[in-house]
Design goal:
The protein contains 10 helices and 5 strands; from the N terminus they run βαβαβαβαβαααααα. The chain is of the alpha/beta class and 221 residues long. α7 packs across α10 and α8 crosses α9.
Length: 221
């Protein structure tokens, strides 16, 4: 059972998400929170699998709350998905850099929300791949200080190749087909790359691919 915590200051939004999620046989809403402070407190108490975190909330905004969750070693298995009203929210890229596993716009289709929750728990592809890749590309291109590429020296040639494919949004199965290897081998390469670069999850690996210059925004499909 996938346990979800809903953090949003609008009760109607929470009610809508709860109705959808609780109707699924493999998902349950463990708790709700109306602001960032309450969200962090409930995450520490309940250790849910996924937090659906609104970016704009009183007391403590979603970005700050996400940092508190992702920087706590005791909560390393908790995945945070940011909720935003606007696709080009200026905080989205920073949220992913802060440890969020991805984001969704609030008016996303129900099936997409369910797929996203299941995907992030499985550690699979980045959420909303088309929109997310475009946003990451845009914000990475605008970042003031490009990250040093020294960390890439830790990677083997194959791992750099795999990281590039992750960066352009391919799933493990797609990477396996591209490199003519098994999905398990592709997954192993991705996992080793994440460990070497100290990436919390696949979302951060994508960001690092852009920031290091390994992937360019113009390559997006």
């Amino acid at each position: 059972m996938i346990r979800v915590l809903l953090a949003d200051d609008q009760s109607l939004v929470r009610a809508g998400f709860r109705a959808l999620l609780d109707a699924q046989p493999d998902i349950e809403v463990a708790a709700e929170a109306a602001d960032g402070e309450e969200a962090v407190r409930r995450v520490r108490e309940l250790r849910p699998d996924v937090v659906l975190m609104d970016i704009r909330m009183p007391a403590l905004d979603g970005l700050a709350a996400t940092r508190r969750v992702t920087e706590d070693p005791a909560l390393k298995d908790v995945k945070v998905v940011m909720l935003t009203t606007f696709e080009l929210d200026e905080y989205v890229f920073e949220a992913i850099r802060s440890g969020a596993s991805g984001f969704l716009v609030k008016d996303t289709e129900p099936d997409e929300l369910l797929r996203a929750v299941r995907a992030v728990v499985a550690g699979d592809a980045l959420l909303s791949p088309g929109v997310t890749r475009r946003l990451i590309g845009e914000f990475a291109a605008r970042s003031k200080e490009p990250a040093a590429a020294d960390a890439l020296a830790l990677l083997t040639e194959r791992e750099r190749e795999v990281m590039t494919l992750v960066g352009i949004g391919l799933s493990n199965e797609e990477i396996a087909r591209r490199l003519v290897v098994s999905p398990l081998t592709a997954k192993t390469h991705v996992s080793r790359t994440m460990v070497k670069l100290n990436a919390r999850d696949r979302a951060q690996l994508v960001v690092l691919a852009y920031e290091s210059g390994l992937v360019r925004p113009g390559w997006l499909g």
